[in-house]
Amino acid sequence: MAASAPSSSGNEPDPNSTNLRPPGSSYDAWCGVAHGCSRKLGMKICGFLQKNNNLEEKISSFKERSSKDLLDNSDRDSRFRRTETDFSNLFARDLLPAKNGEEPTMQFLLEVVDILTNYVRKTFDRSTKVLDFHHPHQLLEGMEGFNLELSDQPESLEQILVDCRDTLKYGVRTGHPRFFNQLSTGLDIIGLSGEWLTSTANTNMFTYEIAPVFVLMEQLTLKKMREIIGWPDGEGDGIFSPGGAISNMYSVMIARYKFFPEVKTKGMTAAPRLVLFTSEHVSLIQHSFPQQNRLHIQSHGVCLQGCVPMFVNATAGSTVYGAFDPIHEIADICEKYNMWLHVDGAWGGGLLMSRKHRHKLCGVERANSVTWNPHKMMGVPLQCSAILVRERGVLSGCNSMCAGYLFQPDKQYDVSYDTGDKAIQCGRHVDIFKFWLMWKAKGTIGFEQHIDKCLDLSHYLYTKIKGRKGYQMVFDGEPQHTNVCFWYLPPGIRDMPDGQEKREKLHKVAPKIKALMMESGTTMVGYQPQGDKVNFFRMVISNPAATRSDIDFLTDEIERLGQDL
Amino acid sequence: MAASAPSSSGNEPDPNSTNLRPPGSSYDAWCGVAHGCSRKLGMKICGFLQKNNNLEEKISSFKERSSKDLLDNSDRDSRFRRTETDFSNLFARDLLPAKNGEEPTMQFLLEVVDILTNYVRKTFDRSTKVLDFHHPHQLLEGMEGFNLELSDQPESLEQILVDCRDTLKYGVRTGHPRFFNQLSTGLDIIGLSGEWLTSTANTNMFTYEIAPVFVLMEQLTLKKMREIIGWPDGEGDGIFSPGGAISNMYSVMIARYKFFPEVKTKGMTAAPRLVLFTSEHVSLIQHSFPQQNRLHIQSHGVCLQGCVPMFVNATAGSTVYGAFDPIHEIADICEKYNMWLHVDGAWGGGLLMSRKHRHKLCGVERANSVTWNPHKMMGVPLQCSAILVRERGVLSGCNSMCAGYLFQPDKQYDVSYDTGDKAIQCGRHVDIFKFWLMWKAKGTIGFEQHIDKCLDLSHYLYTKIKGRKGYQMVFDGEPQHTNVCFWYLPPGIRDMPDGQEKREKLHKVAPKIKALMMESGTTMVGYQPQGDKVNFFRMVISNPAATRSDIDFLTDEIERLGQDL
C-alpha cells in the first residue's frame, strides 16, 4: 500500500469537508451529536455550530491583528508589507501547484475578488455609467497600461490584476439597472455565486463519474421543467445545451431521426426532401435548415412537389415583437398531418413560471419538443438553455455512438445516469448549477415574481408612451411579452407629411440616439428595421434591477438625445 | 435632461474605475501626473499609487476595527453579531438589487469565496481525497442536509451556503494532482480568476457593442493561434465554440459551403453524395456526418459510385492512443483530389506551443481548418475550443443570415468587429477571457513548459512500466502524446496461458480496480476496450499539479487494489 494514501478510518475528520477544526474541539463533539438527529434538525444544529465555529476563528484572528495593530504601532508598515502581497515580483508560476504557492494563491484570489465585488457594487449603482465606450481602434492601440497583445514572456501578477480591472472598466455592465440592450440582462447574485462555484469545480457533464452532483441536478431540474410544461408526471427527456440555436438544432435532428432513423447512418439521401414550417420572425431555428426548405407559417398548406412536411416550429416569444404563435391551432395541424411540433420558447419559455402569463403558451404540452432558455427571461447567467423532449429515448437514439472509449457499461454505478450519449458534444460545460441554485434560493414563486414584475414594467412603458407626443408604436395592441417596439420622432420630423423623406429621416433617428447613448454611457437599448419598417427601438425588460424610474430615465434620455435630430 | 444622468465633465472621478478615492487626494493628483508619462512608466506609477492607496484604506479599516476590539472588549459579541451576518433569516430577495442589499450581498459573496478558496486549497492537498463517492440513489435520497429537490418556496441563504459546500463535497476534484481521468484536468488559478471575472461580466460575444474587450481579445488570440499554426501573417478566420465536436461541425459545414454553396439555401439536394475520410480512432467528428459516408483513412482510394470525396479529417492526437496522423502525406492526397483538409487537434493542438513536440503536427499549416481545444492540453478551464480557418470570409459566408434584427450596419463603430454572423449561435458564452489572461500570465513559454512537463511525465510512466512485472503495453513504441495505454495483470492472471479465459479475466480487471479506486477516493484514471482489445487503462497527463510522485502513487495504487483480483 502506498504510504501517502489517506486513511479511511471512520474517526478521522472528513478531508473533503471545509471549515472543520481539529478533532476534539467542542464543535466536532456537538456536530457528532447533531448528525444523530433527524436530517432537518441535525442540519440546523450543524449549521449553527459551524457558524459559531467560524465566528470563533474570526474572533481570534481579529484578536491577533488587533493586538499587533495597537500595541506595536511603530512596526505597522513592515507588518503590512508582510501581510500585503507585492504582486509585482510574483508570477503565475508562483501560484499553486507551486511549492509554497498557497499563500500567494489565496492573496491573489482575494485581490481578484476585491476587484469583482467592487464591480458588482458599482453595477447596481445608478450613478455609475453602463459603459465607457471606445472604438475598436482605440482599444487596439492600447489604453493606458492596457495592452491586449499576447507575448512570449509572462507578465507579473500585478499586471494581471491591472488587466482584470481594465477589462471590466472598458466593458459593458449588463447587470446595470439601465441596461436593456439584450434579451439576457441582469446580474443575479445567486447565479453569479453558482458560476463561481461551477468554474472552481471545473468539470464536465459527460458522465456521472466526474460530475455526480451536477448530473443529478440536471436530471431533477429538467423533470421539473417538463412538469411545468405539462407533460404527465414530468416524463420525457432533455439536456442543457450551449444556447437556443443549438437546442433548436437538437429538435430538428431528433425529429428527423424519429421519422427517418436511417438518416443517422445513411445521410440525407435516406430521406425525401423535408420541409420545415416556422413563423416569420424567428431567429434561432435558422441554422438547422436550408433557407429554401423553410416555409413561413402563414403559407402553410402550400404543397411543394415531392416534399414531405415534417416539422413545425411554433415561436413562443419572438425576438423582436415578443409574439406568441397560437400553439393549439398549430398542434391540431401537426396532429392531422403527422408532423413534429417544436415550441421555440427560448425567450418566452420563462412565462410558464407565471400563473398570470403562462396562458400565452397554452397548448405547449402538446409539443414534441420545447426550447427554453433560463438565461433569457429568468435572469440566469449566460449560458443556460434547455431542449426538452416529450418522448423518452429519442434523444440518445439520435445521438448515441456507444463508443467504448467514451462510456464503459461495466462501471460500478448505474450508468444510465451518464448523459454523454444524448449530447452532440463530448466535453459539455456545467450550465445547470447556477440555475439549480437560483431555483433553490428563489423558489418557483421567486421566478414568478421576477417575470410578473418585468411584464408589469413593460406594461408601464407601453401605457406611458402609447399616446405620448413624439412616440409611435410599431405594432398595435398590448405587447404579449416585455418587448415594446416604438419609434421616437424628434420635433423636427413629427410634423412632416408621411412619405419617403420622412421615412428616410426617421430611419436614421434610432441609430443616432443609440450612438449618443453609448457615448454618454447612460443607458443601452436595441433598435433594428424589420421588413418594410424603418429602424425602431425594441425595448425588452428582463433585468431584475430595473424599476419604473429606470423606464422613465430611458424615455427622458431618448427625448434628451433626440431633441435636436 | 434627466436629473439623475451622471455628469460627463472631465474633472470628476471616472465612475467606472474601481478603488479610486475621492478627488483631491494625493493618489489622484499623482495619478494625474503619472498619466502624462509614457505608457509603461505611467502604468507602473499608477499601479504603485493604487496599491498604496488600497493599503492606506486597509490600514484605516483595520485601525477602526482594532480600536473597537481592544477598547470595548465587553461589547465584542454584539459587535460581532453586527459584522457577522446571520444568513438564516436572509433570502435571495434581500440581496442586490434590493434596497439596502449591498451589505448582505458583499457578506454573502465573501462567504461563497471562503468556501471556494477552501476548496481550492484542499484540491492541491494530497492528503485530501479526489472524490467522496456515492451512488446516484444515495445522493437522490438526500445526504444529511443536502436535498437536491426544487421547491416552490425560497430557501434561506444559510441553506444556500450549505448547498454550495455539499455540492463541492460530493463532487470530484478535477484539479487534484492525482486526477488523471479526462483529457481536461487541473485547476489553473489564473484561468479560474478569468472565469470568475467572465461570469461577473456576464455578457455575450455576439457584438462588439456588448463585449468590446472580449471581442478584441478573441480576435488577437485567434490571430496568434494561426501564426503558431504557420499560416502567413496569421491571416485567416476563426471563432471559439462550445467544444471540439462543435468546432469540427463548423469545419464540415464550411467545407460543404465552400464546395457547394447552394447547400446553404437549397439543402443537401443541391450537392451530390459527399464522402468524408477520417482516421479510425476519432470521436469528435462523428456527429457531423452520417456513419455510412465516413470512411477510415486506411481505406482511402476506395471509390463509391456517384459520391464525391470532399473532406479529410486528420487527427492530431487521438482520444485513446494519442496518435497523430501524418499530415503532410494526407495533405498531398487532398491537394491531388481537391479535398478540404481539416486537422482535428482538439487534444493534440496544444503541442504546437512546444518547440520540442510541435513536429508531431508537421504539415498542419497545409490544413484548410484546424480544431484546437485549449481546455484540454493547455489546462484552460472548460469550455474553450477554437475552430481556425485558413481562408478569410468563408466562415461568415457559410453562417451569415444578415438579419437586421441581429446586426445593424448603421452603428457608430466599425461593425466588422461584430462576430455573430460567423457563429451558428446567437448568444455565445465568453470563452476567451480566461485563455487570454492565462496567456498573458504564463507567456507562450509558460504553455510550452507545461506541455513539455506533461510529456516528460508520460515518458517517465512509460519507461517505468514498460518492462515491469505485471504490466503490458497496449501499443508498441513510445507514445506520441501523453496517452499511456496499458494492462495491469494481477498475480493470479499473469501466468495463465494466453486464450479466451485469460482475456475474459483481464477484461474485468480495469473496471474492478477503477471501482475500488473511486470508492477509496485516492486517484482516478480512465479505462476502455478498443476494437478487439479488452479493457485497458488509458493514462493521460494534462494536469499541471501532477509530479513523478503522483505517477508512482498511481502505479502503487493499481498494484495495491489489483493485488488480489
Q: How would you portray this structure in words?
A:
- Chains A, B: Belongs to the group II decarboxylase family.
- The structure is a homodimer of 565-residue chains.
- Helix content of chain A is 42%, strand content 11%.
- The longest helix of chain A is centred in the C-terminal third of the chain and has 35 residues.
- In chain A, helix 4 runs parallel beside helix 6, helix 7 packs antiparallel against helix 13 and helix 15 crosses helix 16.
- Chain A has 565 residues and is α/β, with parallel strands linked by helices.
- In chain A, helix 11 links the parallel strand 5 and strand 6.
- Chain A has 16 helices and twelve strands.
- A seven-stranded mixed beta sheet of chain A has the order 2-8-7-6-5-3-4, with helices on both faces. In chain A, strands 1-11-12-10-9 form a five-stranded mixed beta sheet.
- At the A-B interface, helix 2, helix 4, helix 5, helix 6 and helix 7 of A face helix 2, helix 4, helix 5, helix 6 and helix 7 of B.
